[in-house]
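Cross-check.
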Amino acid sequence: MTQYLVSGMSCAACSARVEKAVSGVSGVESCSVSLLTNSMGVEGTASPKDIINAVEQAGYGASLKNKEAAHTDITADEEALKDRETPVLKRRLIASLCLLIPLMYLSMGHMMWGWPLPHFFDDNHIAMGLTELLLTAIIMVINQKFFISGFKSMIHRAPNMDALVALGSMASFIWSVYVLFAMTRAAADGNEAAVMSYMMDFYFESAAMILTLITVGKLLEARSKGKTTDALKGLMKLAPKTANVIRDDSEITVPIDQVEKGDIFAVRPGENIPVDGVVIDGVSAVDESALTGESIPVDKEAGDTVSAATINQSGYIKCRAMRVGEDTTLSQIIQMVSDAAATKAPIAKIADKVSGIFVPTVIGIAIVTFIVWMLIGAPVGDALTRAVAVLVISCPCALGLATPVAIMVGNGIGARNGILFKTAVSLEETGRIGVAALDKTGTITAGEPKVTDIIPASGVGEKELLGIAYSLEQKSEHPLARAVVAKAVEEQVESFGVSDFKALPGNGLSADSERGRLYGGSLKYISGSLPVPEDTKEKADRLSSEGKTPLLFVRDKELLGIIAVADVIKEDSPKAISELKNMGVHVVMLTGDNERTAKAIGEQAGVSEVIAGVLPDGKESVIRSLKDMGRVAMVGDGINDAPALTRADTGIAIGAGTDVAVDAADIVLMKNRLSDVPAAIRLSRATLRNIHQNLFWAFFYNVLGIPLAAGVFTPILGWKLNPMFAAAAMSLSSFCVVTNALRLNFFNIYDASKDRSKKTEKVKKEERNAMEESSRTLTIEGMMCEHCEKRVKKALESLDGVKEAVVSHEAGNAVVSFDGNVADEALKKAVEDEDYKVVSIA
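Predicted model, tokenized:
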């Protein structure tokens, strides 16, 4: 994806216009414009020159983001996210207020409440009118950006929010100027009554107040929008600016962009590690919380990797630079979060469609409002007031910001906790997961075998058994042998020398020692050398049924005992799986183990289903079959899971650590904790819920506000809306949407207390098996909340022959079971009569 900076956008209609213009360029495969970050992501073969020309022809500016080097890249991103709007808007607001206060005093204070004025205004109404005109004109010049942007957008036949503000303010101003000339003529004729009447028809203060209040709203919006990118800006601030590099046996400080791969750099306690590297000398504890969210420092010694922006806490270490510039983990995380912000979630398409026609529609409504009120005999001033109110109360900004602000905040929360969503689509879709397929090794289990049981034979001590096993196994490279050696080292057991070591077929080892001939291996191997007592066989079978591998050890012809080794379940795995199930997710464990071992581990972990005997290249076909149950997420370590991660609806790479560029995954979990999977689902659902709230507010505000401004409620309830209050309402609408999105920052993604079970795309396996064979699934577009679910459910269940309809707005479908014959056309009509679209019936 190539990213561009876009200037001149002020609302959702602007971003829709830019997106449409660039999408029409030959060679552009996809284009996504972010109003929040004023950026654009483009995929395809089109040249940057053609894309920039298309943006400029649409009436906006564009420039290619600079990515020559990581430090330049981060600086460019910081510049892109820098809040330039707030200082400018603050100056405009202060200047506008300085002029608006005397204008309001003159027009409202004196006229309505009789506040005193200087003597030269006594009975000089024309002077008062000219003063109001002058003050208003200066305020309009101060806020000329609305007029330049608005009229420019109309010239390009793509009116935006600024066009509404400019038209409303200009209409009030021109009408007031006309009234001033009419008043001058009446004064010249000596018609004092007409002069006083005209004084009440001035709307200079409305024109000025509209501009000032919209500027207030823009200022609040700019400040709030700045906070939504705090997480990304925080990551950028972590980037070290210098490094202590060792050259010619001396330590020198150089700018970070001068560090090259292979350089040796030194880091003292308390300093940030400048680039990704490997420790070559020294021991320390490194705080990696900035990247992974893990608060406990990680011990580092020679051979361990370190990442840029992490903090060296204790010892002095020397490292060799391995990844510099834009290849560092920090730069990749920043790029991933930035790319995600530049993409659009599917739910945003609703707002985009509305935004594209919103402003022209509002202008049309304003014209109709003016004409209708004139036809029913209202004074010109009253008709104009209502038309202006319609123009300034309408807010496409709230619609345009509803989705991107929530996506940006959600992405930031994820990044702070080591959960990286690659696109806005993955952030939205994760919450709709119905099936989670977990790779056993490295995901549910630690991926490293450990000794779990030491069972010595009668007359043999644990230390003696472990010591003999240690002496025999330390010659082997087998993972199980390494587990026995690690346990012996941990218990500080001493070994003794062996000779004539042999690794024999059938899972066995043998060697000579001063204590006799030693044997070790599986029950099958040992049984071939000497008779094994029945009670020992029972113990071995029991350990096998628990998912452990029993290793038997023999000295000469004497059975010494059993040491059981297993790939132990991670501490947080059972809790994480339980949380997933409480969320309504069907949890499946995939493993290459035999059925017996797999079921034992599956029971310990608490999964819903175990699929055993799955080889690495067979995972992809298993994922394909699981899709019959709903949306599938594949969780794996990303090493040999790439086909399965790609096949799944959502691919989640766990334990990525510093290797965040897992191409096949949609989500990258930097920590090796399964609990981050339910946390990611929880965050996705919270973000989607926030988007629904924002969209509801944006639609509800405009649906209620526009009729109120047009005077629809005036004959019924007597409600009228002054353009100044309309402008205030418009200003607050966008502010409310952005502020609501910021509430996500207080959401605890690890709190499972409020989890709610969601229906899967069809139904969970148990429910699915219990259903009658006669059922059909309707894929439905347009459902956004539980209220929508109820409407569709009621419509379907009202049909004769329909037994039950299980509807999910998050999955976007309805599973219908029958006790009679119902045609597909009848099902489709029932749903579409409720204003939802049926895409398919299966």
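The two ends are 36 Å apart (CA to CA). Confidence is low (pLDDT under 50) at residues 67-73, 759-773. Passed to J.P. for a second look.
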